[in-house]
Amino acid sequence: MIIVVSPAATPEDLDVIVRRIEETGRQAHLSVGTERSIIGVIGPDAPELQDMFETLPHVESVHRVTKPYKLVSREFHPANTIVDVGKGVFVGGTELAVMAGPCSIENEDHIVETAKAVQAAGANILRGGAYKPRSSPYAFRGLGEAGLRHLATASAETGMPVITELMSVGDLDAVCRYSDVIQIGARNMQNFILLDEVGKVRKPVMLKRGLSGQIEEWLLAAEYIMAQGNPNVILCERGIRTFETAYRNTFDINAIPLAKELSHLPVIADPSHGTGKVGLVKPVAMGAIAAGADGLMIEVHPNPDHALSDGAQSLTYERFAEMMRSVARIAAAVERTLSGVGASAAAR
Amino acid sequence: MIIVVSPAATPEDLDVIVRRIEETGRQAHLSVGTERSIIGVIGPDAPELQDMFETLPHVESVHRVTKPYKLVSREFHPANTIVDVGKGVFVGGTELAVMAGPCSIENEDHIVETAKAVQAAGANILRGGAYKPRSSPYAFRGLGEAGLRHLATASAETGMPVITELMSVGDLDAVCRYSDVIQIGARNMQNFILLDEVGKVRKPVMLKRGLSGQIEEWLLAAEYIMAQGNPNVILCERGIRTFETAYRNTFDINAIPLAKELSHLPVIADPSHGTGKVGLVKPVAMGAIAAGADGLMIEVHPNPDHALSDGAQSLTYERFAEMMRSVARIAAAVERTLSGVGASAAAR
Amino acid sequence: MIIVVSPAATPEDLDVIVRRIEETGRQAHLSVGTERSIIGVIGPDAPELQDMFETLPHVESVHRVTKPYKLVSREFHPANTIVDVGKGVFVGGTELAVMAGPCSIENEDHIVETAKAVQAAGANILRGGAYKPRSSPYAFRGLGEAGLRHLATASAETGMPVITELMSVGDLDAVCRYSDVIQIGARNMQNFILLDEVGKVRKPVMLKRGLSGQIEEWLLAAEYIMAQGNPNVILCERGIRTFETAYRNTFDINAIPLAKELSHLPVIADPSHGTGKVGLVKPVAMGAIAAGADGLMIEVHPNPDHALSDGAQSLTYERFAEMMRSVARIAAAVERTLSGVGASAAAR
Amino acid sequence: MIIVVSPAATPEDLDVIVRRIEETGRQAHLSVGTERSIIGVIGPDAPELQDMFETLPHVESVHRVTKPYKLVSREFHPANTIVDVGKGVFVGGTELAVMAGPCSIENEDHIVETAKAVQAAGANILRGGAYKPRSSPYAFRGLGEAGLRHLATASAETGMPVITELMSVGDLDAVCRYSDVIQIGARNMQNFILLDEVGKVRKPVMLKRGLSGQIEEWLLAAEYIMAQGNPNVILCERGIRTFETAYRNTFDINAIPLAKELSHLPVIADPSHGTGKVGLVKPVAMGAIAAGADGLMIEVHPNPDHALSDGAQSLTYERFAEMMRSVARIAAAVERTLSGVGASAAAR
Fold this sequence. Notes:
Four copies of one chain form a homotetramer. By secondary structure, the first copy, chain A, is α/β, with parallel strands linked by helices. Chain A has helices at residues 11-23, 47-54, 108-120, 145-158, 172-178, 192-199, 215-227, 255-262, 271-275, 278-290, 317-333, 340-347, and strands at 2-5, 27-31, 37-42, 59-63, 83-86, 89-91, 97-101, 125-127, 162-165, 181-184, 205-208, 233-237, 267-269, 295-299.
């Protein structure tokens, strides 16, 4: 940490700052300059120190020089992490992860049929929501545990691993029982209680970036999970909130290469939420794979105009299959592969 | 709801849309125009309909014409709600609510001493955190239930009602036992599970606006609480996240008069989080009261440079007392009062 | 400037950085640490250096320690600047500046009548646009020089100084001939050519903050004007662009006390643009004065539903007069005054 | 336009609104509903009407149903526009436009050498700034007309067309004399005077999206140019300003497919400004091409650590050539080509 002190500070003022640093068990390294004096703080960093030092008289600014996360950092773990999500599927390797399915699970037939359709088009993980975060208390909030059972049926019928969102600590056991991957949604990126709890199990966790989550905060949220002992974390960029109103969210493609540079964890792109508009899902999916994403999460529904949620961003089976053929060409250009069925579908 | 249809739509295309509207049990009122056709949807609104209709062929846009919230709306409840927080303090009436105290409760002496200091300067509600949301898993996360007990002691010694943040459903009973008001923090504005649960008790709840929470989403979050039966909701504007990096958050003063226009619920201003900088707390507090806020939430610490959290935005006792004298003058100008002790302090 | 070097750098790598610093004519002060090495750059700062140093191998980050502006900085000019705008009106002193009038000048009668109405209610500077920046090329773009002449007539009839927007270097002479204050609009905050030119005259310039202008950029834009020799600069906060769609812009109240802390220049608040909604103008105007603004800029129109621009945020004469009475009470609470007519109007 | 009226409106109130609509020469089509009444406005749209109607008593909201731009709209011009920039290069066809070169032209040798290097790697248009918008008045602001002459020399030596930024109407003749394409920078997206003037010449104009420019505003800015008679407009997405501080700007990949859906104009991606970080330029360039961009604008400098501007986002010759090889593979996957030299470079 580096402390910049205003030119108005006297030697006695500098002493006050140095003593406060030493009280915290760290050493101070003072460089008196003509315009500003600079004090280097030698010793372990701690989140609260920056705030404390900023409050001292004559301190103009405090600059951190180390990253606040360790376990998620590529600095401490240079190789890519590959997460085994079960049933033969891995996230973060050469083969892309393609998670597809409906926003909400509506009934057993609906999820089983959709599972088969997305698998035929090249998806290798089935998504479906049983617990749905909705802005309005009057909207459909998901089937709950019944939905999880339908999801498990679809998994059994297709052999695909499944992912579903967990919103509440109280549902952790149920979700772990039926699902292969636990999704933490954007609104819960900083639900630290939930992060702690999914850190205590060993199920893979996919952590979505919050609507206004900075990259550093997102990685710190992942650090929460890893700090409890669960190394199986997958990141997911799903669009951020900006001033632009032409789309629901602004997909942040910069986040993909930067998250992969700063961290060893795999990064998935969600262009369905990242755009909120059917017409933009395919081009943004292609862009994300070209930029280095390790996979996609896509909302698919047989009849988007009857979907109980997120219809405006859900692809039909036909559009999803068409998207997969285009994605397959981009994947080949960046030396990534799609799963067996998808690859052959793409080659057609 | 109004549906705008593209000029390319044929009469058959319009029929498809009309039939879909009728399937939902609503009536369609069609106006064929030269450039665009417009279809009015007659019948109860529902959150998922907009999305559904947007996916229909040739639909260009769908416009909602009613507010998605009812219970929080001033349209359905024209008079101001005044929340009784106990111990003789009301939020939303002529007397301003001034919630002050440390970010985190650090020990019993600390909170008791701070309580007495802020009360002497005119605060009428004591704040203090026992459960702290922190970006980093390695930061101090609060004393938990021990902190709640210290808070209750401070309440008993001063007679002030207290407010503290609830982060987890599992801590609801403890927080209800020791605290007069439950705070839902900005990161949990859309933690819908938590909103449901605090809606089931009758304790007053102060709901902070999320870092990227739109006014409508904030009011819908309040609707979650009221929909479960708890009418005692207080709103709190605490700054939003913008592109500006000169302060931690951007206090949104527009939100105060707008929330009071749209809703009957009281609105508190938190300039400590809304600025993140000690030097800005007083002027922004004064501005918020001038703009119609029903009170303030202010972080106060005897030694901000030793605070375990949020030192950079915490006022010393002296600065808080000085701020209260300035706030008292603004309060008088807008025909609001401060509590007994504060009024006399201000008059000095 | 402080350069933070990654732990991977060898002594030879550090040498490369030190030599590059010395090439620029500055000295390097190296502190080798266990986790990171830090290099202080001793010598005059220059805007391009940060970028240059960031590109050197193993440099993790570069931190500036001095402000990039001088002439606008309170560090170099501790006393408040008071700008004499002519006709007996000063901006930045105890008396508040209240600039009011229509968005666009529509004809001579319109501006003369409005001038008299706003003056009667307490305004002391007349605003009116002759050159209008409009998003659409098909919108009304102002009367041009004819509008300036009408404005001058209104000034002559009331004795009030006037302010009008300059959009183009080609109109500088005309604007200087007819107007007392030159307004640089939000869209031109970084029109550096225009800033240079208004820096070469001595007319007072009011510089609006851009829709996405950071405080530092705003002050640097003011520095452009002062660097050309014009010391008569007034800042104006008029709302920024955020994710919130409930209002046209988000008035940034934090900017007022911060700009006044960092700079000696006066700061005006424009709640008409800062909210874009008639119902919010009065409370936000009151908040801005309470937070320390040196005055207001308010759009007023006799018939907002017939205004050729910005009707939705224009006050009628009656609402403006009512606002002024409320503002007068806040002004008194912060020991500011309104001009003669206004003061007596407020006292009624 | 559709006007939504509050339930409180009486028949007389509705009459007032209808008469105001009729005064503007348009017809009103009233549908009285149980919760809200709706009035359709029949007749030509005009930008100021929305504001006017919003100010009428009992009007809750006004919804536009047509786009405010015509000439740039794909609705009125379904085929892609291909802009001939001269010297055999076209923007918007199958062959990608790759504009590369230094941020600032520093001297003749520098620009000629860089031109040859980027051409060898596959660029087909040379970029270089002679007039530089800089946040600080103390930064290097370009060589001016001398720089334009150096640029023309580099064009003559390589045969490549050139693009350079125009900041001021006063420099229009000079820029037209030496440059093949006029660039309007992000800070000038809404410098309407400049847009008018470049609309009066026939030189191709590349219009960058502003830092906080909404898609609709960007297209309206292009409409300004076309409305003056210049059809040769190219759009350029260069990143927007968001809350994220990990990069200089947030490249908005959604904007590429949406601008191409709404408009027939070609769209170029600028990942140098869109990220501000060397390490992100290549993956974001690849993503942009995969998402449908018609080309790239890339900053290249032989020694970024000596660049007079934008060093932190400039690629060396080697990194640019490496990027082009990767881009070539993505181009092939989306059935786009690179220019002769580039294609063979890519094939190596």
